[in-house]
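quick one
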Amino acid sequence: MSLIANLFRSSVGRKILMALTGLILVGFVVGHLVGNLQIFGHPDKINGYAQFLHQTGPLLWVARLGLLAAVVIHIWAATMLTLENKRARGPEAYAVKTWLRASLASRYIRWTGYIVLAFIVYHLAHFTLGVTDPADFKDRHAYVLQEDYTVMGFATVPAGTTVPNVYLMVYRGFESAPVAVFYIIAVGLLSFHLLHGLDSLFQSLGLRSAAWSGWLRRLVALLCLGYFLGNLAIPAAILSGALPLHPAAQVTSGTPN
Ligand code: HEM
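structure w/ protoporphyrin IX containing FE:
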């Protein structure tokens, strides 16, 4: 049996698959947050960044398909492991004892996972497809970059390029209280999911020892809190008016690339 087939067929393999796909997804959400935090700068930043990503064309699609595969494998492995655990657990009394011993984050890991999945579907419909709030999406009209957008010193999107106004689209989106509050709840649940997810990830990859499991748990809790606060900052700052709309974001002309 090849190594890959072994990963899919054995219970230990499925745990490793869940950890590895989890790692890919954590990499994405952290990178996405760092990119999104550019909204606190000049609109050139987030708009140039979005254009740069769109310009990568086939590479962007490779990344999207990779992410989709990671999500599917992560959910499949989680479902298989849950079913196996249920089968192995046996008498109800033992199940109750295990439930009481487990942390809150681990007890609700499946439910937080389902809700985050539902959030992703809504989020794609909102900002990528423009189905839920066509008015916000309409605001994704043309923006003319005032300065070069550079990546590692290279001007990847030159000044004067007409790009989508992602800044204005996100800003308009979070001016709505129900939308902003829904995002805050969803990223809160995602952070809670990661609280147990990251801990199990280290366990599955054999990187957690009894000697430092306490420290690891505290480090994971700190990282999850930081992740939550970073994500909270965007809708909270817009909804509360702490981040005023940048005047440059309203400059529009032409059609986006
Ligand atoms: C305050 C929080 C967030 C903001 C402001 C935000 C903003 C955005 C924006 C503006 C886009 C569209 C980018 C474009 O088309 O140029 C996008 C796409 C996306 N976001 Fe978020 N996002 C947030 C949180 C999240 C979270 C927590 C997740 C995952 C759990 C996520 C997953 C995605 C995915 C998968 C895409 C599609 C990327 C692609 O085009 O392939 N986002 N987000």
